[in-house]
Amino acid sequence: MTEFPTLFVSHGAPNMILHNVPARDFLSRYGDELGRPEAVLVVSAHFETSTLALTTDPNPKMIYNFTGFEPELYEMTYPAPGAPDLAGRAADLLAAAGFPAVPARNRGFDHGAWVPLKLLYPKADVPVVELSVQPRRDAEHHVRVGRAIAPLRRDGVLIVGSGVLTHNLGEMRRGEYAEDAPAPDWVVAFGDWMHEKIEAGAIDELAAYRDKAPHAEKNHPTEEHILPLFTALGAAGVAARGKRVHSSHSLGVLQMDAYAFA
User: Fold this and answer.
1) What is the pTM of this model?
2) Residue 10 burial (CB < 10 Å; 0-12/13-18/19+)?
3) Is 239 part of any domain?
4) Which of 19, 42, 46, 262 could form a disulfide with 5 if both were Cys (CB 3.0 to 4.6 A apart)?
């Protein structure tokens, strides 16, 4: 059984899937490089709960949790099957580690899941489960959640954290950045710090990023879009190191980096 690295991918704005941008091109070819997993567990920034939750529907519907984008985006589908058995195994692992998780019934795929997966595995033939983030809990908590579900990798499950490496939409709107605008210094500094610590395997420093990384709060006024990275990091094991497999920017303030952890 293939044991995959864990991933953090930046999904950006949902219409990234419609545009010829570097992050889209990367995701479109990276699935072939990785190979086909038995199933995918996605930790999505757009699935926020106070208690951990796992999707359990065998045939999840689509969630278009955004407004104001191109009409064709609302017509896209990703008919991948759900994986109730995988959700059950994940829930058991989480419970054994002291992290109770509840089933999220009748919940479909949000764009944090279906946008990157539609590019990675366009045939939609790989079963998918979503795991929530808990924005009221810190990065260290999400690392420990990742460690709890790490054994799933031995069963050929690909664990993917889906967010954005930098995510300040208020600043993006105020700055009126063009698609190809250069990243401001405060975005570059944060991205460089994260890259250095991820490749060094400095897990304790990463878990304390809110205090240690330059411009952490400016890049993440709210934390939901960076927390999936920490779950992916934890799921790679206690001595995990990351490799940056893609780097680009969108709309100036969105750093669209992707990392593989092993």
Assistant:
1) 0.97
2) buried
3) yes
4) 262
Task: Give CA–CA dist 4/136, Å, rounded.
Answer: 29
Residue 33: which CATH number? 3.40.830.10
Asked whether residue 153 is domain-assigned, the answer is yes
Structure tokens at 239: 């001595």
For the chain, how many structural domains are there in total? 1
- Average confidence (pLDDT) over 53-69: 96
Decide if 62 is inside a domain. Answer: yes
Please, which pLDDT band fits residue 175 given cuts at 50, 70 and 90? low
Among 146, 59, 65, smallest CA distance to 99 is for 146
* Structural domain boundaries, residue 87: 6-261
Please give the pLDDT value at position 103: 98
Q: What is the mean pLDDT of residues 195-221?
A: 98
Q: How far apart are CA 184 and CA 181, in angstroms?
A: 9
Per-chain mean pLDDT for the chain: 96
Q: Answer yes or no: is 1 within a domain.
A: no
- Report the alpha-carbon distance of residue 128 to residue 10 in Å, rounded: 18
